[in-house]
Specification:
This protein has about 625 residues and is α/β, with parallel strands linked by helices. It contains 26 helices and 17 strands. Bound molecules: thiamine diphosphate, 1-deoxy-D-xylulose-5-phosphate (DXP) and magnesium ion. The site of thiamine diphosphate (TPP) has 21 residues, from α3 and α7. Its cofactor is Mg(2+); thiamine diphosphate.
Amino acid sequence: MELKILPNINTPEDLRQLPEEQLSALCEELRSDIVSELSVNPGHLASSLGVIELTVALHYVFSTPYDRIVWDVGHQAYAHKILTGRRDLFKTNRKFGGLRPFPSPDESEYDTFACGHASNSISAALGMSVAAMQKKEEDRHIVAVIGDGAMSGGLAFEGLNNASDKPNNMLIILNDNNMSIDQSVGGMKQYLLNLHTSSTYNRLRFRAARTLQKWGIIDENRRRTILRFNNAMKSLITRQKNIFEGMDIRYFGPMDGHDIKQLVRVLKEIKDMKGPKLLHIKTTKGKGYQPAEEEATIWHAPGKFDAETGERKVDETPKPPKFQDVFGETILELARRNPRIVGITPAMPTGCSLSLMMKEMPERTYDVGIAEGHAATFAGGLAKEGMQPFCNIYSAFSQRAYDNIIHDVALLDLPVVFCLDRAGLVGEDGPTHHGAFDLAALRPIPNVTIASPYDEHELRRLMYTAQLPGKGTFVIRYPRGRGELLDWQCPLEEVPVGKGRTIKEGTDLAVISLGPIGKDATRAIAEAERTLGCSIAHYDLRFLKPIDEEMLSEIGSKFSKVITIEDGVKAGGMGSAVLEYFSDKGTVPHLVRLGLPDSFVPHGSVAEERRLVGLDNDSIVQTISSLLKA
Ligand SMILES: Cc1ncc(C[n+]2csc(CCOP(=O)(O)OP(=O)(O)O)c2C)c(N)n1
Ligand SMILES: CC(=O)[C@@H](O)[C@H](O)COP(=O)(O)O
Ligand SMILES: [Mg+2]
């Protein structure tokens, strides 16, 4: 498509100069631009396509950046980036050193808050709205844009609850495409579907009030009073329980979120209304790009594709499985044998491959929505009554479940297996999504066993071990992406809890690793021995907790130089645990800890991120070389 309007839009101010009649054409140009760019530079496609009209309308009607738009998750904000002066840089989106994966105030004054983890927009926008009132900035508008999936999160409800109670003028836009990454689930989904029935009533109400104003029968103030009064009357007459209205948050909609003309009109009408309000728009995830509309889950983040044909570029050569698939296949295998096993995911069934078990055993699998804290406590309840839950949560999102794991699972010593996927550096999703903190955060919690597999076989064995009787709360963390074994289907055997393994003997120095980064350590050790002519021992700790004191004692007696390698923050992580052990014993070797620094690691490929933090092959070899000379 030839772009005629978009190249002239460098800021939202340029957009606001356009006549309204051109907005629709601009939306089509944005759509075409995003599809063509993402076909070669992958990212979150379907959600962004679904909010193009909304994005244009918001920047057209509101005075951004003075007015604040708070995006929820931020995976839908590509049109926002393009319209806010970042079109030229969009080809660097998600690349190392390039545009950030999600809106970030560090990057642009149009990006107003932290994005990446779902359901925070209402709380953040409420804070901003209350701040505007405190500062007497009565003319500043604050808009939160939240999806139906994110609306299922507990934090969103907490924000709504508070919004109805504190004076504020916030506008919440509920972008309802009836999809999360997978199918939307739960009562809120059903509730929003039912709300559709009130749409005709709302349309008529608006039209009637506008006509009365046009005819000069009522003025603007009166029209607003009537609309407000009508809302109250509607509740009285129909006793229809609209949860938002019931909480004194004025509700508008649902309306077609792709009708740019109507969107602009309605936003203009409601923007200056006082008090909290919610505009419910209905959109289609993937709008305007047929393959994405048809299979929104796949096109949530489709990888590279042919923009013309919609054919995804999938490399078919045989490869080792993704860790998530080893989890998915193994839990299914275990569940066939053990009828007490149930699977839980907070909104990531495809992402963590619990979908495999869901297909065969829908009655024993639970997608609980974007609700990590609930997922953990729900698992606790199941375990308390004798079930054996496997609760799979992405490591970064498990931060939301910290107290639930402590209070509702570990404290009761309940046998829940937490499988933390995407542990360690995740690549292009960047700092919000790196699984950096789980080891350090979970280590101090009593009653918890923490393990990480060296490879796919170990993941299977650890999963088998974790569901055996008496194993208590058990955490298994593993990374995003593929392992290295084509023949990953080993027999399911018990692993001795709290026992590490010697991968190779050596004499000059010991390397202790935890998890699949141990494979990288194995390679670096081989290179160091080859190039430096040294002999290095390699130990796979396997369990962070209970830590293998016997193995550490042996290492302490044999080596004065030790390197620890982990794919998590150094502060409080595995290296810290090893140091604590030696310190408690009174003999501390010269110990170098490799891991993530005390700073947020930016986005890029995993290889680039590892290089940056000193966890790539060359850095490990270099560290070995330096320590040998020390
Ligand atoms: C706390 C948290 N849990 C899970 C995710 C993963 N996630 C990202 S987008 C998304 C779906 C969001 O659905 P919705 O808000 O409806 O937006 P849509 O993709 O439909 O536009 C999920 C589950 C996340 N980013 N944050
Ligand atoms: C925006 C978001 O949080 C998810 O879409 C996330 O990017 C998924 O990550 P994976 O690609 O690792 O499943
Ligand atoms: Mg949605």
